[in-house]
Amino acid sequence: MNPDKKWSVLIGAAFLMATSAVGPGFLTQTTVFTQSLGASFGFVILASIVIDIGVQLNIWRIIIVSGKRAQDIANAVWPGLGTFISILIVLGGLAFNIGNVAGAGLGLQVLLGISPVLGAVLAAGMAIGIFLVKEAGKAMDLFAQILGLLMILLILYVVVTAHPPLEEAVVKTVAPNKLDVTAIITLVGGTVGGYITFAGGHRLLDAGLKGESALPQVKTSAVSGILVASVIRILLFLASLGVVAQGLPIEATNPPASVFALAAGNVGYKFFGMVMFAAAITSIVGSAYTSVSFLKSLSATVRNREKQIIIGFIVASTLIFITLGKPITLLIVAGAFNGFILPITLSTLLIAAYRKKVVGTYQHPVWLTLFGVLVVLVMAGMSLQVFWDQVQILLAD
After folding, report:
1. Model-level pTM greater than 0.90?
2. Which residues cross the membrane (predicted)?
3. CATH number of 3-396: 1.10.1530.10, 3.40.50.980, 1.20.1740.10, 3.40.50.2300?
4. CB 391: neighbour CB atoms within 10 A?
5. pLDDT (tens digit, 9 = 90+) per residue, 31-78?
């Protein structure tokens, strides 16, 4: 692979991972947590960035060194485990994609004044168009980069108009007066949970990068992906903080739209529509591509008809949204899946990192292993706690 093409693939994988993470839920979470934690939310963002980088470095390194997709690695560790993980990720990815389609429809409603359903259909058509291009991988990379940069510029404008208290934000990022562990777990799950964890790694593998010689490039791409997502998160946090600091009321029905409108008037509201659309449609593309990549090893039909299956995935997500509206139950189930998927997949890959039949003579860094084990324990514990809380609520009802 020539240097220019390799660099394009690395940046493309980074933006695919980042824009897959930045969906409608990402925008809402950031705004809501800023409301409740104020400037101290900066510490939550900082903690989640550190965790996210550790998770991505572990997973991407092991995928590239082994030259295998995550489900194949899991099957090598324990026969059938890869199939189980694939089912979890595809179901979770489908449920989240319904929310992504809904978000894209909402974004186009704000921009064009059309119904969310028509907006969702148009967005799905655009996403499908990416996979009808002959070099779909290259088109997907470019699409993610352009819209990722667009989101950064639009949110930056809103930050400037919101006049956030930057000094307070910096101080409380390192010395918070409020701490919410659940917020950290939520951000981690939303940035590197479910299919998102594997979006960039599988993209690099499909582009031909594998083996220990590719590790320096993998590190660059993985860290870049987290940093792109984090820049968007920080800018959105600052925009929300500016509004909160002024004591302006943020509407509970659509917090991020309210922030954009309060900070920059009608122009800000239109910018929200563009950001929501960009966030949602790139997540549609990332979710469909990555979810189907987990089926490629399980079926020759999927391998031979990957583009058609990806298009079918997008069509199914859109039809479910049109038929059922916004399926809250499915989104709740998807969230629960994400909570469990990360500790399962990360622990599996950490075990694989010490199996010679998977990684050969490769020596996985001890610090990354220890970091990964810590994340597995924390995420598993929090997921079980959330699950138990939901059971208690159901029993109470």
Report:
1. no
2. 7-27, 39-64, 76-98, 110-133, 142-163, 183-205, 226-248, 268-289, 309-325, 331-354, 366-388
3. 1.20.1740.10
4. 10
5. 988 998 999 999 999 988 888 888 999 999 999 999 999 999 999 999
